[in-house]
Each structure stands twice: as C-alpha cells, then as structure tokens.
Amino acid sequence: MVYDRGEAGRGASWAAAGMLAAAIETEPGEEPLLPLTLESQRLWPDFARELEAVSGISVEYRDEGTLNVALNRDDAETLRHSYEFQKGLGLDLEWLNATEARRREPHLKPGIAAAVLSRNDHQVENRCLARALIAACSAAKVELHEHCPVKEVVTAGGGVRGVETERGREEADTVVLAAGAWSREVGGIPAPYLPPVRPIKGQMLALQMDKAAPLIRHVVWLPNGGYLVPRNDGRLIVGGTVEERGFDTSITAGGLLTLIEAAWRAVPAIEELPIVETWVGFRPGSRDDAPMLGPSGIDGLVIATGHHRNGILLTPVSAAIVSDYIQGGRLPEMAGPFAPQRFTKPLSAAAQ
Q1: Are 117 and 65 in contact (CB under 8 A)?
Q2: Superfamily per CATH, domain 198-285
Q3: What is the phi-psi region of residue 133: left when phi exceeds 0, alpha when psi lies from -120 to 50, beta otherwise?
Q4: Which candidate, 204, 201, 261, 200, places its Cα nearest to that of 236?
Q5: pLDDT tens per residue across span 287-300
Q6: Which residues contact 251 (CB under 8 A, 6 or more apart)?
Q7: Under the phi-then-psi rule, with left for phi > 0, alpha for psi from -120 to 50, and beta for the rest, what region is 65?
Q8: What is the pTM for the complete model shown?
Q9: What residues form DSSP beta bridges with 19?
Q10: What is the reported pLDDT for 349?
Q11: Residue 232: C-alpha distances to residues 124, 205, 218, 235 (Å)
C-alpha cells in the first residue's frame, strides 16, 4: 500500500526538472555521494525502458548531454576550477571553446567564454515519470491511497506495528517513510528518530519554444547555478531558486527576475518566448544535503528521504537500496554513508 497526502507524484517529483546530472552537479565535499549518483545514472536507461514497457507511458529519456556554460572571463575561471575538480574524480567531461559550444547550441549568446560538455548527464521528463510510476504500481496491484495522509506510524515494543490514517489503522511490520520535505510531519515517531529533513523552496517557470525548431537541445547549466531544460513538447524549463523559506508557496517578482535574467543572459532569444507556467517546489534537504536511505533505528521503520536536488537522478538506486534492505536486511556498501542512523542518538531503555 502507498499513502499520499495529496495527489500522487505531485510533490517535489512534479516540480523537478528531471536532470540526471551526476557529473556536472558534483561539488567539493560531495565525493562520498558520487558512487551513488553514478550507479543510479548507470541504472537509468534500463530503468526507463522497463518502466515504459510496464506502464505504456514514455518517460522521455533524452541523452543529448549537458552543457555548463561560462559567459565571461570570470565565469570561465570558476568553470575551469569545477572542471578540473570533476575531471580529477575521473568524470567524463570535455572543455569547449566558444566556437565549439555555439556549434552545439547556436542560440547561446555570441561572445560566451567557454563551456563544459558532459555527455553522460542526461534528462527525463519527471512528470511523465510520475505518471508512469503510478501506472506501473496499478499494474503490480499496489493499492494507492491519494489525499490520505498518514497521521502516525504505530509503534509498540520498539518496533513498527502499522500506520494510522483517516481510513483507520493498517497493520504492517514494515513502513517506509518517503514523505520528502514533509517527513517530519508524520506523527508517532520518537523525536530522536525523525529524519532531519527540511523544505528548500525552489521557484521555476516554463517558456514555450517552437517544438519544430527549439532554441535549445541540450540541458544547459548557467553560471548562477540555474539551468535550462528543453522538453519534447517545446517547453523550456527554467530553474530554479534555492530558498530557505519553509513551506512558502508564493511566486515572487525577485525569484522570477533571477530566473529570467540568468536565462536571457545565456540565450537572448528567449525574450520572445511566452511564459506558460510558473510553480514552486520543495526539495527535501538533510543536514548534510545527502539522502537518508535505510533503517531508522526503529525496527521495521525504513527511511527514504533527504534527496535534495538529486531526487529524480537517485530514483532507481534508491528503490533498489530500500527494497533490497527490506528483503535482505542489509545495505550495500555504497549506501552505508547515507544510513539515517548517522543522525540519530539511541533512546534509553526507559524512553523506549
């Protein structure tokens, strides 16, 4: 059974951009996360094919690659630093001069300084992914209960006994807490075992390109950390702000200005494109900005949250890790650094 507080797949998964950017997104300090992201990136093509076969829905997996662009000399110095760091980790990246970059994306601003091409950083249409997962669950006879939040996880004797919802109590010996940024709002879990996850607000918008002649074909990363993601239907996703504002759902003038200006500086021709959608999403961020996957410290309660900006990328490997743990009781070595118990302090016997 799967319980969702709203419509299934309409949280961070719906708000995301669907980038599978294990290389371009790796920053200093995130080296322990790299084996996990690379493994998930490796799994994605087969995962997409299997999901499409089961669901009958295309997830629009695209493999043109990703460009990280530098618009001026200062940007190029920063980009060179990231490039050398990432190359030092053995990642497959190529430095492009301005001519080479604009050969791949002719609508990039004339006079850009440089770019880095990551051929292995692909994309998927995350909203199609959500629809496909729902269809696949239905085909597998999963009971999906939408608009039915879990009020609390029922525990007794130090272990899980089920969940309580408005439908009543459902007995279970294993519960997976995968509520994203809302994971701490589920009751019944002792405070020391609640995953330290918080919402990280992101504002985004979509422009409409000519589907037959799109301005952009690659995913393009911008110097300010923003990005442009072209879709098969001609939409161009522009994202995303990073704001510590709690569950603030407001679209702000400053947020949209930041996104549009950054996109326009890289691709001036976007100024003629209509805005077709704006939205807000909430990334689930942990204390160390890394995911929490595996046992919680309470028998039968498994955690899968805290993916921050890598939720779509880490989908197949997260599913494999959690299901393997439930069935076999062990975490693979690469998941060890991301066990939720790295944040927990054991309760005393009296407290239990």
Answers
A1: yes
A2: D-Amino Acid Oxidase, subunit A, domain 2 (3.30.9.10)
A3: alpha
A4: 204
A5: 999 999 999 999 99
A6: 203, 278, 279, 280
A7: left
A8: 0.94
A9: 123
A10: 40
A11: 10, 16, 12, 7
List pLDDT tens digits, range 23-57.
999 999 999 999 999 999 999 999 999 999 999 99
- Over 70: is that where the pLDDT of 81 sits? yes
User: What residue type is 9 in one-letter code?
Assistant: G
Query: What does the pLDDT read at residue 224?
Result: 85
Confidence of residue 352 (pLDDT cuts 50, 70, 90): very low
- Domain positions in the chain are 32-59+123-195+299-344, 198-285
Buried/exposed 50-78: b ≥16 CB within 10 Å, e otherwise: ebbebbebbbbbbebbbbbbbbeeebbee
Residues present in the chain in total: 352
Asked whether 146 and 4 are in contact (CB, 8 A), the reply is yes
Q: How many CB atoms lie within 10 A of CB 316?
A: 21
Predicted confidence band at 346 (pLDDT cuts at 50, 70, 90)? low
The token duo for 351 is 């407290």
Torsion of CA 308, 342, 32, 247, to 10 degrees: 10
CATH for the 32-59+123-195+299-344 domain, from 2.60.40.1080, 2.40.320.10, 3.50.50.60, 3.40.50.150? 3.50.50.60
Q: Can you tell me which residue has the tokens 């603030």?
A: 248
Query: What pLDDT band is residue 117 in, cutting at 50, 70 and 90?
Result: very high
pLDDT at 21 over 50: yes
Distance from C-alpha of 233 to C-alpha of 128, rounded to nearest angstrom: 12
Under 8 Å between Cβ of 267 and 107: yes
- What residue type is 111 in one-letter code? G
Kindly list the distances between the CA atom of residue 36 and the CA atoms of 33, 155, 217, 343, in Å, as whole numbers in the listed order. Answer: 5, 31, 27, 19
Q: What is the overall mean pLDDT for the chain?
A: 95
With 0-12 / 13-18 / 19 or more C-beta atoms within 10 angstroms meaning exposed / middle / buried, residue 245 is middle
